[in-house]
Amino acid sequence: MNISKRAQQITQSEIRAMTILCNKVNGINMAQGLCDLKVPDVVQTGAKEAIEMGKNVYTSALGEPYLRAAIGETLTRNYGRKIEAGNVLVSNGATGALYCLATTLFDEGDEIILFEPYYGYHVSTLESLGCKIKYLKTLPPNYEIDFDKLEDAISEKTRAILICNPSNPSGKVFSKEEMSRLAEIVGKNDIYLISDEIYEHFVYDGLAFTSALSLQAIKERVIAISGFSKIFSVTGWRIGYAICDESIISAASEVNDLVYVCPASPLQYGVNQGIKYLPKQYYTDVARDHQQKRDTFISTLNEVGLAADYVKGAYYVLADLSSLPGDDDKEKVLYLLKKTSIASVPARAFFSDPNGINLARFCFSKKEEELEEACRRLRKNL
Ligand SMILES: Cc1ncc(COP(=O)(O)O)c(C=O)c1O
Fold first, then answer.
1. Most buried in the list 27, 65, 152, 258, measured by CB within 10 Å?
2. Structure confidence by residue, pLDDT tens digits, 185-219
């Protein structure tokens, strides 16, 4: 088979691999980052109505103007910086939005700085474009950034720092001070700050979330990525967006046009109805419910000897599987699947060097009954 070098570089993610194994044993899939909320009624009904209204044809490659305006208004309200429709590119999920922006901004050989543990798609997306990634380790429990090391890592080829806030998989929520330091460094070095904020509403313990969009001093240098997959539980709809300076938008929309043509028309209408009609309470309830799920699941992990810290945001937890049989994280995760039919992700998926990693990532955004069943199985079988 003549498979291109580029395609050979793109391999199946550990997450998909574990999902396939989980389906084979009809297990509880805590590997994949699905959000198990009910899709809000207004969102569902909106999409159905849109199909009936005839919203079934191509839209602008920038996304529907009404949705771009609604996203801009919401972010302006939430983060205190004026975001116009002209700053918004609606794409095929946050994944599509990042792909478009990275293709628009970076050339082969450009360096991007990422913090470890990282979200694998960030790495794959950048590497598929020939970017070189520089990893900076951050460590539990607070995953603090070593700003001296960060400054040392910046070279002439560095084009951006990419953060995931709140972080998948560590749950780190960047503090206001950390965001200010990042802004200083980004401004001084004339590089971009890309901030994946898809978990912006999943923040716990009353912590404040500081969006990169609030960093006025570097507003031309900020690319925020987010979307509706998680908050409206519509991962299969593929509606996400990038916020950036208006000067980049047109070029990014050309990439969006080339790869996806446009985001799905009726689904843009569906999420717009959600933005328009869901009260503030919807978002606070989602955070509160997830905090409870976090507490339930992480206390069980610790009870059965799989040590884990209470995450501050997002809905994943890295747990220490050292106490389980197996030579490495992969073997331990398979043991756990065999013993409990619970699938998790071997944490090598989030580190550049798999050696010595005994962690696994669990997604706790599950329906209550399923989460309780997972806890029961862990208690019974470990
Ligand atoms: C950090 C992060 N960004 C982006 C995504 C994907 O978002 P979307 O479904 O909008 O492409 C995920 C999904 O797990 C994620 O964890």
1. 27
2. 999 999 999 999 999 999 999 999 999 999 999 99
